[in-house]
Structure to design on (480 residues):
């Protein structure tokens, strides 16, 4: 793995991007949470009218993958920017949440059945 | 940095979580994009009625930080699961997008002014 | 039709609801748009892991219909409150948009095929 | 009020729009809920980087009002289409929900204070 290719480095690069443009003023937690949500809608739009099977095929089309990658990237960018602004370690939080989900949803109880309430 | 604390390792852990529970059947790209969007709404709800200043204060409250961390974690979890299912490198995509934004929004042109259209 | 059962009357009732509680201060256009989006996520959550067919069955279950109705109601409530606050006639706007869609998507051109870009 | 300008008539017009184009196949409850959510994101995008005050000013600009009206219309269109497909009376549901909120949030208890959890 390229050592520079980490969430921490992405956070630093986004800090500089915002600072250079004097955009820190717009990057308060509320606006960044809004931005994550807007970008999530744009990702979802790619699959809007597709059946689940068609969506899986679509996600494999070479012609569509860069668009798809870009929409996912936008979400990560704002999410990492938000975690940096509020000073929360995103990967640590995710690992704590996965551990919580593992204990909340024991294999023997939930195997194969969709839970009514999603784990998150 | 803890070597185990990477997006790649999170992806592997989520693979196992889903496989153990026979939940891969639910994790098609469309459902995972939906899930990212739902979780983004839950994050946004934390700030719903707060002014931007109040939201910044809220994000600093020790009593609220775990809740905030958890909502951000949920977004990352589904986003990483989605990128893993479709086989896209999330951090690479984010770095490509940042580079694109850097060239799209030259400092001398946009400094200090909100762009009408957000960069992403 | 019950004459009181109109969007206009709903708007008036929501005005009074907010005024009585001194909540108008929170009902600026940005917060109301956020609220519409949060509620849309809650609606979507009802269908999160269901196949399209299962979602249709779910929507017919007597036990689920009030929950479903309530989530749709929440969206309408914030949307009507927003249109009232900004002074836009929601139904007029919708009818103009439908007319626009009718001319943008002529039957003979689009029949049976999903448009890449959704009409709205 | 123009008698034709009702949610019921909008629903009928949307039925015909979909039937004429053979698009009913795409209009299952899950896809329509997704569409409401996507459109809510597009509305929110109009206010993304604005302060609450700027958002209120923006919503009053003659040059922006048609764009704003269109985004709100898109949400209503998919919401009404969804309620029609699942056979739920949207205005009735909204009025029931308002009545519920009125009893849940008695004036004397909540006046002037934002509730932690939004009413909906």
């Amino acid at each position: 793995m390229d050592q520079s290719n980490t969430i921490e480095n992405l956070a630093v690069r986004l800090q500089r991007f915002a600072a250079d443009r004097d955009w820190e003023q717009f990057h308060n937690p509320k606006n960044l949470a809004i931005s994550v949500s807007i970008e999530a809608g744009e990702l979802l739009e790619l699959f809007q009218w597709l059946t689940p099977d068609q969506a899986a095929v679509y996600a494999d089309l070479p012609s569509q993958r860069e668009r798809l990658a870009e929409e996912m990237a936008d979400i990560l960018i704002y999410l990492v920017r938000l975690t940096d602004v509020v000073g929360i370690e995103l990967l640590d939080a995710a690992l704590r949440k996965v551990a919580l989900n593992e204990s909340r949803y024991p294999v023997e109880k939930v195997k194969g059945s969709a839970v009514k309430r999603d784990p998150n």
Summary: Chain A touches chain B through 76 residues (CB under 8 Å). The mean pLDDT of chain A is 93. Residues 47 and 54 of chain A are 8 Å apart (CA to CA). Helices of chain A lie at 7-20, 29-45, 52-58, 62-86, 90-104, 107-110.
